[in-house]
Design a protein that fits this description.
Layout (H helix, E strand, L loop, with lengths): L3 E12 L2 E12 L3 E5 L6 H9 L6 E6 L2 E2 L5 H7 L1 E4 L11 H7 L8 H10 L1 H5 L10 H12 L6 E5 L7 H16 L3 E5 L3 H7 L2 E6 L2 E7 H5 L2 H8 L7
Parallel strand pairs: 3-8, 3-9, 6-7, 7-8
Antiparallel strand pairs: 1-2, 1-4, 4-5, 9-10
Helix pairs in contact: 3-6
Keywords: Amino-acid transport, ATP-binding, Nucleotide-binding, Transport
InterPro entries: AAA+_ATPase, ABC_transporter-like_ATP-bd, ABC_transporter-like_CS, BCAA_Transport_ATP-bd_LivF, P-loop_NTPase
GO biological process, one term: L-amino acid transport
Length: 240
C-alpha cells in the first residue's frame, strides 16, 4: 500500500450536544482514490468537514503529510494543499463562472494548461464562462463547484457526493473528470452514494456506521462481496 497522505487517529467530533464522530480511524493512501461509504447520517460529511476544519475535532489527531493539522484554521489547511468540494456546492451565484474559478485560485492566476483541461473535462463551463453561475442548471453548478476546487493543483481533494441527483450523462462526465484527476496522481477522499461510480474509481474503501469506521480495505474486495456489502451497509452494490 502507498504511504498515507492523510491519517485520522481516534477522531471525536461533537456538534452541539450530539456525539457525531466516535473514534474515527483510517488512512488515505497517497495517489489513490479512497471511497468513504456508509448509510445516510453515519458521519461521512462530518468527517470531511472535520478534516477541513469546518468542525473542530474534540480529540484525536489529523495527520496531513505527517503534520497534525487538527488545531489549524480552515484557511491554513487549504493553503497547505487540501481542496474541498462540499455537498451544497457553495458557489457564488451572482458571479460569473470565470469569477468563481478565479476565486478558486489562492496562489495566483488560473494556469492556462489547467484551465484548458478543466474546460475540456466540463464543456458546459466553457459555454457559460461569462454567464452568472446562478443561471446554471443544478448539474452545471455541481461541475463548477468541482472545477473550482480543481483550479489549483492540490495534494488532497475532499469531495462530498459529487454525482448526487445528477442525470446519468452528467454523472458520466463527472466520473471521467475524477478519473483523469486520479491518473494525474491526485489523492482523493470521495463520499459517493452511486456505487457504480465508487466501484469504477475507488482503490480503497472505508465504511462508516454510527460515527465510526466498521470496515476498511480494497474497493475491489468490497465490490466483489455481496454479503459484505449487505452486512456493512444493508444493501448490495448490484442494486445501484
Amino acid at each position: 500500500m502507498s504511504d498515507p497522505i492523510l491519517t485520522l487517529d481516534n477522531i471525536y467530533t461533537d456538534i452541539a450536544q450530539y456525539h457525531i464522530l466516535q473514534g474515527v480511524n483510517f488512512t488515505v493512501p497517497r495517489g489513490q482514490v479512497t471511497m468513504l461509504l456508509g448509510r445516510n447520517g453515519v458521519g461521512k460529511t462530518t468527517t470531511l468537514k472535520t478534516i477541513m476544519g469546518q468542525w473542530r475535532a474534540k480529540s484525536g489527531a489529523i495527520l496531513f503529510e505527517g503534520r497534525d493539522i487538527n488545531t489549524l484554521p480552515t484557511a491554513t489547511r487549504a493553503r497547505a494543499g487540501i481542496g474541498f468540494v462540499p455537498e451544497d456546492m457553495g458557489i457564488f451565484g451572482d458571479l460569473t463562472v470565470e469569477e468563481n474559478m478565479i476565486l478558486g485560485c489562492t496562489s495566483g492566476p488560473l494556469d492556462a494548461v489547467r484551465k484548458d483541461w478543466l474546460l475540456a473535462a466540463f464543456p458546459a463551463l466553457a459555454t457559460f464562462w461569462k454567464s452568472e453561475a446562478g443561471n446554471l442548471s443544478g448539474g452545471q453548478k455541481q461541475m463548477l463547484s468541482i472545477a473550482r476546487a480543481l483550479a489549483e493543483d492540490r495534494q488532497l481533494y475532499l469531495i462530498d457526493e459529487p454525482t448526487k441527483g445528477l442525470a446519468p450523462a452528467i454523472v458520466s462526465t463527472m466520473a471521467q473528470a475524477l478519473r483523469e484527476l486520479k491518473e494525474q496522481g491526485a489523492s482523493i477522499l470521495l463520499v459517493e452514494q452511486n456505487f457504480s461510480v465508487a466501484r469504477a474509481l475507488g482503490d480503497s474503501a472505508v465504511v462508516m456506521d454510527d460515527g465510526a469506521v466498521v470496515w476498511s480495505g480494497a474497493m475491489a474486495e468490497l465490490a466483489g462481496n455481496k454479503d459484505l456489502q449487505e452486512q456493512l451497509m444493508g444493501l448490495s452494490m448490484e442494486a445501484h
